[in-house]
Each structure stands twice: as C-alpha cells, then as structure tokens.
C-alpha cells in the first residue's frame, strides 16, 4: 500500500522492482490498472479483491483508515513522505492542472489552507506522524522522497528486501539503472510543470514571510516528532 507524497513515482518504482520490469514497458501501460487506488470507486473493491496475490494497491488514506490486515501485520505497507514545503508546491500545481479541481486561488492562499489542515485527506502533519509512529513495525517500510534522489541504490535495496524479491549483484545494478531512468522520465516529463519532481523547488515560490510562517507552524505541529526532512539537496 503506497500512501501520499511522491506516490505516482513510487508506484512505478515498486512495480519495476517487484516485477523485474523494464521502464519502457511502464511507459506503455496504465500503471493505475496495475496498482488500483483502494479508496477510489473505480475499479472498486470487488475487482481489487479478485487480484492475484501478491497484490499491489495504492492509497492516500491515513493509517487509522487502512484495512485491519495492515494493522495486524498481515500485509506490507510502503509509505513515502516528502518534505512539506516541496509537497505543498507540487500539490498546488497538481490542483491547478486538474480540470475537475481547476484551483484558481493564489499559492499563498493554498499554502495557508495546507497549514490549517483544510485540504483533501485532512492534515498532512497528522498523516505523516501517524505513519511515523509505526515506522519500526516489521510490515512497514517508511521512505522519504528526497532519499530517492539522494541515494536511489540504497532505496532500491530496501525495496528488494522488503518485497522479498531476489536479484543477484548484476541484476540489482541493472534495476537501479532502470529506476534512475524511470525517475528521469517522470521528473522531466513535458506534461508536468517544470521541476515539479525536484527537491528544493519551494525556494522558487516561498516568500521570506511565508517561509517564516511555515516554519513556525511546522515547529508547532511537528515539535514532538523526531522525523526529519531534507529541504535542500
């Protein structure tokens, strides 16, 4: 189960690693059919239940709303967290790009809504801390988006171990290269706003006063949590 920030990219990397697939194959398929979203009406729970095990399922739900099998340790959870400043910029661009949402407010207004927990799926601060409380659980792999760019090889090795797939050294090196190729394709896609996938894009849009306000809210809401993020790479 894949949750929240960077999930579009992570779902492709997970599919690549778990299936030993080629990145060019993924470009030709509808990845959402291979990893259906748990809470979406389409394709629906009935079809998800019919998938052959091991199933790959994506979700944005908070930990407490996930199926009991996950809470009981009977299924594996891969969670990806992204530093919230980049996340809110990417989230804003995403809202503006969707015809169904067509958000036309300013980034300042959007960021204020984010800090006040007024966006879809509720509070990011609660969401990420709830999963962080379970990051040591045997069936949970807690990943950071920034590590995908900083040390992809280590992340691929973590996924290989966690998913229980087997690669020799040469196959593992090839898989890391395939994942690099996939990330380059995703982050440089013409359909995306320029640089949406890079780390540190918040610096291009945050004003000094916005950054100070965000830091204050972040400290208030995350002060007791020992989870840390890279805001610069």
Automatic annotation (TrEMBL):
<comment type="similarity">
    <text>Belongs to the sulfotransferase 1 family.</text>
</comment>
<dbReference type="Pfam" id="PF00685">
    <property type="entry name" value="Sulfotransfer_1"/>
</dbReference>
<dbReference type="InterPro" id="IPR000863">
    <property type="entry name" value="Sulfotransferase_dom"/>
</dbReference>
<keyword id="KW-0808">Transferase</keyword>
<dbReference type="GO" id="GO:0008146">
    <property type="term" value="F:sulfotransferase activity"/>
</dbReference>
<protein>
    <recommendedName>
        <fullName>Sulfotransferase</fullName>
        <ecNumber>2.8.2.-</ecNumber>
    </recommendedName>
</protein>
<dbReference type="InterPro" id="IPR027417">
    <property type="entry name" value="P-loop_NTPase"/>
</dbReference>
<feature type="domain" description="Sulfotransferase">
    <location>
        <begin position="4"/>
        <end position="225"/>
    </location>
</feature>
């Amino acid at each position: 189960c894949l949750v929240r920030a960077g999930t579009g990219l992570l779902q492709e990397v997970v599919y690549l690693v778990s299936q030993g697939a080629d990145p060019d194959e993924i470009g030709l398929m509808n990845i959402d059919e291979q990893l259906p979203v748990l809470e979406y009406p389409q394709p629906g729970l009935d079809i998800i239940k019919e998938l052959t095990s091991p199933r790959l399922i994506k979700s944005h739900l908070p930990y407490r709303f996930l199926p009991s099998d996950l809470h009981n340790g009977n299924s594996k959870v891969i969670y990806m967290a992204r530093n919230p400043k980049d996340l809110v910029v990417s989230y804003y661009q995403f809202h503006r790009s969707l015809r169904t949402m067509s958000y036309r407010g300013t980034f300042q207004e959007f960021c204020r809504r984010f800090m006040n927990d007024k966006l879809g799926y509720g509070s990011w601060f609660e969401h990420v801390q709830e999963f962080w409380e379970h990051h040591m659980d045997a069936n949970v792999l807690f990943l950071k988006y920034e590590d995908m760019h900083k040390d992809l090889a280590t992340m691929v090795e973590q996924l290989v171990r966690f998913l229980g797939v087997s690669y020799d050294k040469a196959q593992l090196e090839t898989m890391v290269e395939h994942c690099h190729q996939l990330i380059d394709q995703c982050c440089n896609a013409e359909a995306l706003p320029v640089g949406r996938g890079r780390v540190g894009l918040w610096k291009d849009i945050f004003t000094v006063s916005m950054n100070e306000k965000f830091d204050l809210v972040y400290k208030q809401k995350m002060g007791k949590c020992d989870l840390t993020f890279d805001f610069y790479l």
